[in-house]
Sequence to fold (316 residues):
Amino acid sequence: MKPSATKSPLSIAVIGAGKIGSTFAYQLARAGHDVTVIARPDSLRLQQLQRDHGIMLKTGESAEVRVADKLDEEAAYHLVLVTTPAHQVDAVLPALQRSKAQCVQFMFLTFEPERLRDAIGHRCSFGMPAVMAMTDSEGRLKPTIISSMKTKHGDQRWVGLFSSAGIPSAFEPEMALWLRCETPFTAAIQSTAVAGQRRGGGATWAEAKAAARGLHGGFEIVKGLGYRLYPSTKSTMYSVPNFLVVFLLWVLSRVPAMRENLATGLNECRALIDTMVAAAAKAKPPLPAAAKALLAIKPTEESGTSPRSKEGVMHV
Fold:
């Protein structure tokens, strides 16, 4: 169903034409906003968007959006959404810094939000998507938006914008800290998902146990950097008996949809672990044991799964 158009449409650019970015762009465009989607130059996704003159769903419904291969730095967008993974964001940071956009919201998991905030300044905000989507070989989108899963925003003004566009959203007052503390959990669960998907089933108990140690090491690094664990679910994971965390990871790796979905995050998992390992040296005192535990669960490039059409987010 098409959401009703807003009285004051905004000019919005979405950098990253993957499933998450495309879902946001589709919903916002259908809500009446002027949306520009920016895809990689010469990419298949750019060609698909240009062919369809926007974003096409598998059901045949579509949303007309502007399509570009780079950010118009002179355009005074009300909002620029960056949905690329953290390890790919450096390629667009210079353009974002020069951009005349009023707000830049990074919509991905990052262990070092302060670095991005320093680069962009007061215009910077953070969020975390809570949608799932898949595309077929023709680039047709099938989004899944669950009302009980809310996209998080560190800037209150965007909660209403997304909610009115059919994307359930909530304000998170400590968004940067939330992202930092979510990173160890995501890396651990992606590691078990990759391990399980590689063998066509769930992760072994030994793999889940190693992931739990990596998760604990990641939390130690967060604390070693002077941050508290947030929200309470993260403190609980850190303090409960280890076998309970092992069991959680082991079980989640056995849910086919969860495993297949998260296993597509192989490169993100590798990059997140590298970032945490580098941060371990800056902790007081340094935490080499925690870094070692994380490196032990870093998926090798050869252990990844073949490219799939699903993409989504799970967070706790």
Remarks:
- Confidence is low (pLDDT under 50) at residues 1-6, 303-316.
- The two ends are 29 Å apart (CA to CA).
